Amino acid sequence: MLAVVDMFKSPFLFGGARKSVSRRCRPGLHHGKEVKAVPLVALAEPSRGPVAASFTGPNAGLTALDPKYSADSRESDVQIADTKNWDRPSEFAYGISVSLYEEDRSPGAAPPPTPSLPEEARGPATTSVGDPVADVFGVQVRENVAVLAIADGVGWGQKPRLAARCAVRAVMEHVTASLPEIRQNPTSHALSKVLVEAVTEKAQELILEHNGTLTTLSAAVVCELTTPGEWGLFVVAVGDSPVYVYCPHSRKVVDVTVGTHPSDGERDVRNSGGSLGPSLGTKPDLENLTGCVLYIL
Fold first, then answer.
1. Mean pLDDT across the stretch 2-24?
2. CATH code at 196?
3. The organism sits in which domain of life (predicted)?
4. 203-250: per-residue pLDDT in tens?
């Protein structure tokens, strides 16, 4: 699964520079278990302008919780996080989910879900073992701020996918609803507090409300700082859904969510390290909950 904001192509983020841009990831990645672990920096006021791009998937993605949305169009007259159309990808804001499980060749296998690809780019219709895919992504871009979320339901089936859909939707709704609050106090701590609330409270509440099971969740915001030409990527994650940044200047990929991984570096695909949903009774498992920030010059 992949949700992408290409900050170097966006006509909104970074002032729309489509010429060659040599941006750098500032040395040092900050991460910790509390909001105060994030360095206090001033943010530019988040844009009050319209949404430039919004996309979710696979299939209905975060819109699946609302019966007024169509699984085919992801568009309705009902707004979710200030957006009626969640099928507006672009060259600078996109997402995709592809199952890596083997093809299901058993007799009577159910038809596959519609992949998050343009029709002309889709391959032969197949069904994978483990369908439905429990991955969910959402991405939304405004003039100087972008919100991204990815969730991976723990296990196979409808309930893990439902949990992932609830988690991504809760992030989008809470961050969007909190933009006026952040405008009044545009700091990294205020933004990180909103992300922590979205992950540990709002997502958890929505999962329990819809009787979902367990899911990982990574919520991220890219926003402009007050220092001219500087931007920040702020992430709050639980479980093992990593967030990466590709730095064109160094041609390196930075794992922003390294703080969620085991301290010994040994990652076990059978253990997510933490999860939302009824993991500990009705409470989430926040063992590896981590806040992270990376600055981009």
1. 51
2. 3.60.40
3. Eukaryota
4. 999 999 999 999 999 999 999 999 888 899 999 999 988 898 888 778
Q: Are 277 and 207 in contact (CB under 8 A)?
A: yes
Question: pTM of this prediction?
Answer: 0.84
75: in domain: yes
Closest CA to 133 of 116, 108, 149: 116
Length of the chain: 297
Which residues fall within 8 angstroms of residue 57, CB to CB, at 6 or more apart? 74, 95, 96, 97, 116, 136, 137
As given in the structure block, the two tokens for residue 31 are 């991460």
- The alpha carbon torsion through 235, 236, 240, 245 (nearest 10 deg) reads 0
- Could you give the dihedral angle defined by the CA atoms of residues 163, 98, 219 and 47, in that order, rounded to the nearest 10 degrees? -120
**DSSP category for residue 26:** P
**Per residue in 93-117, is it b (16+ CB within 10 Å) or e — as a string?**
bbbbbebeeeebeeeeeeebbebbe
Report yes or no on 154 lying in a domain: yes
Find how far residue 179's CA is from the centre of its chain.
Answer: 17
Sequence letter at residue 95 = G
Which pLDDT tens digit goes with each residue over 59-75? Answer: 889 998 887 665 556 77
Is residue 11 one of the residues assigned to a domain? Answer: yes
Is the Cβ–Cβ distance between 140 and 81 less than 8 Å? yes
Phi, psi of 239, deg, nearest 5: 90, -155
In a domain, residue 39? The reply is no
Number of domains in the chain: 1
Quote the domain boundaries for residue 287: 2-16+46-94+130-292
Check whether the bond before 132 is cis (ω within 30° of 0).
yes
Give the relative orientation of helices 158-177 and 188-197 as an angle to the nearest 10 degrees.
150
Contact status, residue 50 vs residue 43, Cβ threshold 8 Å: no
